[in-house]
Amino acid sequence: MFSDRLAATTINGRPQIKFVFRDNLCAIKVLKKGIWELSQDHFGNVWTPLYHSTAEVTVATGKKAKDHYEKFPKHVVFDVLKIIGKPLNQIKIDPKWGFKLVEKNEVVYFQSETIFGAKSYTREMILSAFFKALKLQTLSTANVKFEEIRITTDFELNESQKAIFEKAAEMNFLKIVSFHIANIE
């Protein structure tokens, strides 16, 4: 049913996987027969919204989390790429955010409501939730196991942002082998 079930091209026996980030979205690219292809989820979607929700007992990401924003805006974190790796005084607070940013020891945390009350999350924890979802989707739709990924963004990551991406990957037993900037459609 899905073309994503085609075997991924490997280099040195390793599948070639990219996690792609742009605007408030993320996607997966898999190298197949020498061509990078966007992977679809089980519903045919390529791009996943970068939304993180704590409106239920278990964390939700993607479209479900974005849907939660309508009823539970204080439970949903988004615009993550505009925030990570920046000091609080360089972040433009958006009035649409229901979540808060709090600073402790010069580290910016996301604070959102949960069914148990307010909770703070590191930038790495939030990004890690997206990495987990992308990893599970890749395992499911592309049918490949992998430990290494490439990161592609439509903007240049500073060293602080790269460190956050690397820590989030490590939390999912993944290693980032390279960072790329690309004009992403």
UniProtKB/TrEMBL annotation:
Q: What name does UniProt use for this protein?
A: Uncharacterized protein
Task: Kindly give the Pfam families that the UniProt entry links to this protein.
Answer: HSP70
Output the Gene3D superfamilies linked to this UniProt entry.
Answer: 3.30.30.30, 3.30.420.40
Protein's UniProt keywords contain rRNA processing = no
For this chain, one GO molecular function annotation is: ATP binding
Q: Which family does it belong to?
A: Belongs to the heat shock protein 70 family.
Answer yes or no on keyword Nucleotide-binding: yes
Q: For this UniProt entry, which residues form the secretion signal?
A: none
Q: Which UniProt keywords apply?
A: ATP-binding, Nucleotide-binding
Q: Out of the domains of life, which is the source?
A: Eukaryota
InterPro entries, sorted: ATPase_NBD (IPR043129), Hsp_70_fam (IPR013126)
